[in-house]
Amino acid sequence: MRLGQLKLNTGAALAPMAGATDAVMRRLCAEYGAVCTVSEMISAKALTMGDRKSVGLMQGGGGSAPFGIQLFGAEPETMAEAARIVCGMREKLAFDFIDINMGCPAPKITGPGAGSALLKDPPRAGAIAKAVRNAVPQEIPVTAKLRIGWDENCMTGAETAQRCADAGISLLTVHGRTRAEQYEPGIHADEIAKIRSAVPPEIPILANGDVTSAEGALALLKETGCDGVAIGRGAMGDPWLFARIAAAMNGAPVPAPPTLAERFRVLRRHIYEMCEEKGEFIAMQQARSHAGWYMRGLRGAASLRRECCALRHFADLDALIEHAWALQNEGKDEAAET
Predict the structure, then answer these.
(1) With contact defined as beta carbons under 8 Å apart, do 95 and 38 qualify?
(2) Could you tell me which of 147, 169, 148, 160 has the C-alpha nearest to residue 103?
(3) Known catalytic residue: 104?
(4) What is the C-alpha R_g of the chain?
(5) What is the DSSP letter of 1?
(6) Which residue of 38, 65, 168, 282 is most buried, as measured by CB atoms within 10 A?
(7) pLDDT tens column, 301-316
């Protein structure tokens, strides 16, 4: 699969997630097989006004995989200006492509007309895609992430995707829900398939939504006819998912899930690197949700997640891991005694 002049490995991409796909998460997922990674979404308007926080969100690269910076906005001119600013910092930011957010359902994003609100106005979405494409050097691919529609009465995903394709977009990621559905219920694979059919086959499309296993990834590819998958929440607490999906797509044996020791080792490394980059105070607030995901499926997971919400210092994480380890071994010890 190609992304402009870039050749992507077979496997799954890391989908952008606000508050989650920071530099540490991107590098970790790339190390475990993500074929490309994307930054947290960046406000085009804030960037054009010199916001330092926006610049910080773009830094850190994407590890060993191609890395994209995602912009959101509602005005073609502002999006184009932001894209030019980003390109002016390319050496510093070490990015490979620019992604346009047409899928975020958050009211603070859709209220001003950005994110998935663009699905209510496909011509504007196409104009934004064209403005960004024209503002960026030709060798830098421009991609977009969208949903299948705004709601059941506004299923404009296919039209929006077509307009993006006409504007010169190199790759599309399609989340299989409408904005009204947010993240529930399950995705509509048939609607993703319609978008795949509406776009020229030379433009790759990644299917996104509810993929948490290698088997699920293969099933979604079969149902939609897409070229690959993008993983968002499924990668939280499970960076090993990328290696499992890559193996399945290549017809190779799927690696076993990580051992408990490996899970806790990577959790500790993940949060440690966040503290190194952001400082303990900020990092440990953000670590609460990350640590909670690593506890998924463990014995006593509900109580462990409550402990995650109280993390304040890195030493607290070590205490959490020690408690979680003890809980997982309680049953084994009792079995050994009998």
Answers:
(1) no
(2) 147
(3) yes
(4) 20
(5) -
(6) 38
(7) 999 999 999 999 999 9
